[in-house]
Design brief:
The structure is a single chain. This protein is mostly helical and 226 residues long. It has two domains: 6-33 and 148-224, Helix-hairpin-Helix base-excision DNA repair enzymes (C-terminal) (Endonuclease Iii, domain 2); 41-143, Orthogonal Bundle (Endonuclease III, domain 1). The protein has helices at 6-30, 42-52, 57-70, 74-79, 82-87, 95-112, 121-125, 132-143, 152-161, 172-182, 188-201, 220-223. Bound molecules: iron/sulfur cluster. Residues 157, 160-161, 202-203, 208-210, 213, 215-216, 219, 221-222 line the site of iron/sulfur cluster. It binds a DNA duplex (10 and 10 nucleotides) through residues 48-49, 51-60, 89-98, 100-101, 128-134, 137, 149, 151-154, 193, 196, 199-200, 204-207.
DNA sequence: CTCCTGCCTC
DNA sequence: GAGGCAGGAG
């Protein structure tokens, strides 16, 4: 495993239960509500992740609403031209890359997977535009299979929680390993969403709002008096 | 490193 | 005005 630094592994293990509990408790009153969180259809989760890539949730909604209306399933998305798909993304950016990858993925799902996403990590990772984060989201939110969703919010949150024991520039693989260690078997969907919302609302970029954070008792960054 | 637009925070 | 936002491919 990548988590081979003994001091870090011990620290993560020691705080896992408390972090899970605090995150899940916080989620009961603070989870944000978005259109893509109201359905667990794997295709819709997939569309949401394409729309949310390097894009704030508010903006991603514009693309997501257009996509779900115009292309209700993979067959519809595969039939569309790349230029038609591009229209859904012009207001949120990265339109060329998103349209190209979405179309390639839709064609592959239709031609090689019977028009449906499989609940299999390696199969999902074989799709154009689907990396560890998107595959984790599809597995956890779409299929109810335990998987970590390690996005920039999770990385920022975990980096601060374990600031004292983490290397100066932690690799993506290391942060992924920490995320996979922390995500619980029970309620992994809620946990994944709550970590993202904590990063977006409390442990934000720049100055985190530690005064309203439920993790201060397990946080290196807070303990150092920032 | 680029792709990328619009909005928010600093 | 600069930097960053539910990343991933080439
Ligand atoms: S205490 Fe502050 S730095 Fe630590 S997780 Fe909470 S918001 Fe982030």
């Amino acid at each position: 495993m990548i988590l081979d630094d003994e001091r870090l592994r011990q620290s993560v293990t020691k705080r896992t239960r408390a972090v899970r509990t605090a995150v899940l408790r916080w989620s009961q009153q603070n989870l944000r509500d978005f259109p893509w969180r109201r359905q667990s259809d794997p295709y819709r989760v997939f569309l949401a992740e394409v729309s949310l890539r390097r894009t704030t949730a508010r903006a991603a909604m514009r693309a997501y609403d257009l996509l779900t209306t115009r292309y209700p399933d993979f067959e519809a998305a595969a039939r569309a031209t790349e230029e038609e798909l591009r229209e859904c993304f012009v207001s949120v950016g990265l339109q060329n890359a998103r349209a190209r990858l979405l179309h390639l993925a839709a064609v592959k799902v239709v031609e090689e997977m019977g028009g449906r996403l499989p609940p299999d990590m390696n199969a999902l990772l074989s799709l154009p535009g689907v990396g560890l984060y998107a595959a984790g989201a599809i597995l956890s939110l779409g299929f109810g299979v335990r998987a970590a969703m390690v996005d920039s919010n999770a990385v920022r949150l975990y980096s601060r929680l374990w600031m004292d024991v983490l290397p100066a520039n932690p690799s993506p693989e290391l942060m992924q390993a920490i995320g996979e260690h922390l995500v619980p078997e029970r309620e992994h969907q809620v946990y994944n969403l709550a970590v993202i919302d904590l990063g977006a609302l409390v442990c934000r970029f720049g100055r985190p709002r530690c005064s309203s954070c439920v993790l201060t008792h397990k946080c290196d960054y807070f303990s150092q008096g920032h």
